[in-house]
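Subgroup meeting minutes
Present: P.N., E.W., G.H.
Scribe: E.W.

1. P.N. recapped why we're keeping a running log of single-chain structure predictions: easier to compare across weeks, and new members can see raw inputs and outputs side by side.
2. G.H. added today's entry (145 aa).
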Amino acid sequence: METYGGNLSLKSAKGDVEASTYAGDIDLKNVKGSVRAKTNAGNITAELYPTGKNRSTLKTSNGEVTLYLPENAKANIDASIQVRGWWKEMKDEFYIKSDFSGGINKFDDGEKEITASYTLNGGGERITISTFNSNIKIRKIRSGN
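Output recorded in log:
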């Protein structure tokens, strides 16, 4: 699904989901499979049940990314925040937070980038998350989400 200006919302899907908008939020619920979501100006929220068959990518140039995964998900997650502007003054304003253990935020002064990697339940589907000057949250799916 694609739009050139507007929000995208999906309540449920199986398989590979592609969502792209130039300006708007992307909200994907109950996706059993993989996700490729991209927006140039907007937030991305995705509830993903990875099947391990394909890679998932969540990318925004100006917005927050929140990924929800089941506690037993098998995945390898690479998350990155590019900081534009005054690195030394701004790097502490942005964060990668996760309900899953194991990831450590690394600050690369040369690349002006904050990164974190997670291996969930022995690893599995590769999930890449990236944003500029915003935050990344990786959350466990709770009952009632």
